[in-house]
Specification:
This protein is mainly beta. It is 4% helix and 43% strand. It is built from three helices and 31 strands. The strands form eight sheets. It has a five-stranded mixed beta sheet, with no helix packed on it. A five-stranded mixed beta sheet has the order 2-26-25-24-23, with no helix packed on it. It has a five-stranded mixed beta sheet with strand order 10-11-12-13-17. Strand 12 and strand 13 form a beta hairpin. The N terminus is likely disordered.
């Protein structure tokens, strides 16, 4: 996820509401089943020459997240651990697909994978022997700490569920890199094959069932793009600089079944840009979620007052769920020697949270806090699966219980 530009080169997605949702895709709440009933449905930019740069429109109905939202903290349970930078996820036929961005270490530069996790013994997690299968491995993985001075790993990224030209359901996952290019893989059962390739960092993807199109967030070019089979993409719009001077950096996006717009999270980072400052600059509450219309090629503010937002989802009632990655940048690292020392490594560890925002009343509620660098989420019955632990695996970091090795894990956050 890149905070660089400041983009979070991290990655994301949500399951559908029952098997029927797997066919209509990213409609309302993409609900899957976890535990013994983990059986539900699943969910660059080489811009075209001469593409126009549309203007952002003003919005009179933007919701501002308050400084102190209400808290209704949910129960949480780790369902998978020991993962190498987990990113996008989908639940398909009772199994959980997980994209691993890898270690980011040059010594293991081809450590990215696509995993299939199966709850063989029906205990509600994927922590047991024989519950992990590799569908795709040997994918490139890179840490860009030398550019952004933060422990940031790029590789396998966002995932979603869509419909192919023959009307058959399938999953798609992005392999994204800071600056691009990106490769898109189609997943048909356990068969994985290239679907397309495009310039730019396609950190996240979403299928739009209304338009029967795929869209992506290109964080290194500040664009939302339509993804085209084979090669290339078409610009939907280029997002302007934020009010505090940061690049807009679209990190994650989701089709909104209520408005048929695309909801796009804009990451908040340094006004100095990726290569400026010391890596700790952060403008709190300067980021947002915007509504993007692929038809009019315009964007309008939707949710403001966010800090470092990553993935987002929409439930059956239209409520918005937003992950915030962290609330500060601490202990920047510019060399591998510095990164080997205990510390935050650029991102304040265990300072992320999950927000629920009612689009009608604007009420904001904190459902989970002290999340460790959460990047992606999907819906599960009664809650969300959240991928956490972005950074160099095994590096010693501060945790609520003292220093511990950095670990990639997935946590189920249930509704209160």
């Amino acid at each position: 996820m890149s905070l660089g530009r400041t983009h979070i080169g991290m990655h994301a997605s949500l399951t559908r509401a029952g098997r029927a949702c797997a066919r209509t895709l990213r409609c309302t709440l993409r609900i899957a089943s976890l535990s013994g009933v983990l059986a539900a449905c699943a969910s660059a930019p080489a811009t075209q020459p001469g593409a126009a740069t549309p203007q952002t429109t003003a919005a009179s109905t933007a919701i501002e997240v308050p400084l102190e939202p209400a808290r209704a903290l949910a129960k949480r349970r780790v369902v998978a651990r020991g993962l190498l930078n987990p990113r996008g996820m989908q639940v398909v036929s009772g199994a959980l697909l997980v994209a691993e961005a890898g270690t980011g270490d040059p010594a293991t530069a081809a450590s990215g994978k696509l995993l299939k996790l199966t709850d063989v013994n029906g205990d509600g997690d994927y922590l047991d022997d024989g519950e992990k299968k590799v569908l795709l491995d040997g994918q490139p993985s890179k840490n860009i700490f030398e550019v952004v001075r933060r422990d940031e790993v790029f590789g396998m990224a966002g995932m979603d569920h869509g419909i192919d030209s023959a009307g058959q359901p399938f999953e798609m996952v992005s392999l994204a890199f800071f600056g691009g290019p990106s490769t898109l893989f189609a997943i048909h059962g356990e068969r994985v094959e290239p679907w397309g390739r495009t310039h730019g960092n396609i950190n996240d993807i979403t299928f739009d069932p209304k338009r029967n199109k795929w869209f992506g967030a290109s964080s290194t070019t500040d664009e939302v793009v339509e993804l085209l089979p084979g090669n290339g993409s078409a610009r939907v719009l280029k997002l302007p600089t934020l009010a505090s001077g940061q690049d807009a950096v679209p990190g994650y996006l989701r089709h909104d079944p209520v408005t048929n717009d695309l909801l796009v999270s804009l990451f908040s980072g340094s006004p100095e840009g990726e290569e400026g400052g010391d890596g700790t600059e952060l403008v709190p509450r300067a980021a947002s979620v915007v509504r993007v219309s692929p038809d009019s090629k315009t964007a309008a503010p939707f949710i403001t007052g966010l800090t470092v937002p990553t993935d987002l989802e929409v439930d059956a009632g239209g409520a918005i769920y937003v992950l915030e990655f962290c609330d500060a940048f601490l202990d920047p690292v510019g060399t591998r020697e510095a990164m080997a020392k205990p510390g935050h490594g650029g991102f304040k560890r265990y300072s992320g949270r999950l927000l629920r925002i009612d689009r009608v009343t604007g009420q904001t509620t904190i459902l989970a806090e002290q999340l460790d660098a959460p990047t992606n989420m999907i819906a599960a019955p009664g809650g969300f699966l959240i991928a956490q632990g972005m950074g160099t695996p095994g590096r010693m970091i501060p945790t609520p219980n003292g220093e511990a090795p950095l670990d990639g894990f997935i946590e189920l956050v249930t509704y209160p």
